[in-house]
Structures are given as C-alpha cells and as structure tokens.
Amino acid sequence: MLEAVRLVETAQETAEGEAQRQALVIGLGIGTAPSALTAHGVNTTTVEIDPAVHAYATKYFDLPAECHVVIDDAVHFVDAAGNLGREYDYLIHDVFTGGAEPVELFTFEFLKGLHDLLKPDGAIAINYAGDLAMPSGRLVVRTIKAVFPTCRIFREDAGPTSSGSKRDFTNMVVFCTRSSRPLTFRRPVPADFLGSLTRRQSLLPEHEIEAGVFEERKGDGDIIRRGEMGRLEKWHRQSALGHWEIMRTVLPAAVWENW
Asked: Distance of CA 128 to CAs 46, 88, 125, 192, 222, Å?
C-alpha cells in the first residue's frame, strides 16, 4: 500500500516521466518499496540506521544494487538534507520494528522536517502499526495532521466486526500532501503492478478509516514533541504486547523465541 504514494493525484502527471522524480524512503526493511520505486525509474534514496538490515535485504531479499541506501540516523539525515535544500516528489516513512516504532520519528519536529523536504506538489505515505483502541494511534495521527494539511488514512484490513472488541491492532498508512486540495488517487495501470499479482490485489488503498476515530479524547494529551515522548513510549510498550500475541497465532512462540 505504501507504493500508492505514486498514485496520489497532483497538478503534475505521475504515471509518466518518473525518471525526473526524486524519492526518499525512511526505513529499509527488506527493500520492497525502494525496489519498486527504483523499478519505476524514480531516483530513490533510502535511509536505514542498521547496517545489518541493509546486508540482509541485499543477501536474502535481492535488493537491487542500484537502490541507493544511506546508513544513517533518520533525524540526522533529514536535518542535513533540509539544510542542503533538498526536495523530493515522494516520501515514504516506514519504520516499524516488530511491535513499536521509534518514537522520535513521529514527533512534530521530525515530521515538520519531512514536510520541508517534500515538494509543494509531492506526496508522503506514513506507515503506522499499532492498536487503534489505544491513545497512541490518535496521538500519532493528530501530530501528522498538525504538520500536513491534507491526509487520508487507510488500514490493511476491514477491521474488527465486533464493536465490543478490546483490541484493534492493524497496519495503517497515512497519505498526505502539502496542498489544500482533496487527496485522490489515480487508477493504477498495468505498469504500476510490475508484474506482481500481490500489487494488483493490494496496491490501491481500500479500507479507509473515518477521521472521527482519531479525535482527541480525555487523557490523550497534546501532540508528540521532542522531549515529551514518554506517553507514546508507554503506550507503544503496551501495544507491542498485543502485536506479539497476534504473531504467536501465526507461528508458535518457540519459533519467535529461538529465531
């Protein structure tokens, strides 16, 4: 779904002429998104803090050699890129670490740095995995919306069928622009799928989350700022427990504990 950042409709045509476009990806993982952007001809830079992640993505997941990866702390890189006046057409923020995300990468200050790197007609996709029944998701989304004027939020599934469910752990993507125009997606064309059946089924965002889900509630507190991250860190620890409960239904606990 993150790759749908290319499908966000702007004043410029995005389906053609992508060799002139620039993308910045925060977080490498196995390299799916940067590999796809590179395959579409987008000049892509990926920032990854852990050299082992880069090594494994290259050795075991066939990260193309032409994918430009910078081993650096994302906060440092974004600050430096801003000082150099760099601009990008596409930004992807994808830093899930197996239960929680690095809190500093969801602060107002870091997101403002990304805002300043995004071209006026560009688009950003921010991945967030967490329990939507907890305050953490509301805090993150409200912080994002304090920076970017126009956003739409999609989850990877339809969500719980029971309104009485105590947990709602999901992966969601927040698409935003710097523009005040409504955010819409163009219909994908065959070339967008890169020959992948999975992309054909899931590239275009489908399960949109209503804005009311993220409205402030009593006890949530203000948006996330540097030096004031304790609340989110606490809720992330609780959310991580829920994540690993789910993962233990996918594979036995012994698999996760030993490998």
From this structure: 18, 21, 10, 23, 19
Which residues on neighbouring strands pair with residue 130, listed in sequence order?
170
**For residue 242, pLDDT beyond 60:** yes
Residue 258 vs residues 2, 30, 244, 252, 254: alpha-carbon distances, Å: 31, 21, 14, 10, 6
CB-side neighbour CA atoms (13 Å) of 94: 24
- Indicate the range of 62-76, 133-147, 155-169 predicted with least confidence: 155-169
Q: Tell me phi and psi for residue 135, to 5 degrees.
A: -65, -20
Q: How many Å apart are CA 137 and CA 151, to the nearest integer?
A: 15
Note the pLDDT tens digit of each residue in 30-60: 999 999 999 999 999 999 999 999 999 999 9
- Helix/strand/coil percent split, the chain, to 5: 40, 20, 40
Q: Which of 31, 109, 33, 39 is nearest to 75 (CA)?
A: 109
What is the helix (H) or strand (E) element at residue 117, kind and residue range? helix 108-117
Tokens of 47: 């920032």
Whether residue 138 is predicted with pLDDT greater than 70 in this model: the reply is yes
DSSP reduced 3-state for 206: coil
Are 28 and 205 a contacting pair, CB within 8 Å? Answer: no
Query: Collapsing DSSP states into helix, strand and coil, what is residue 122?
Result: strand
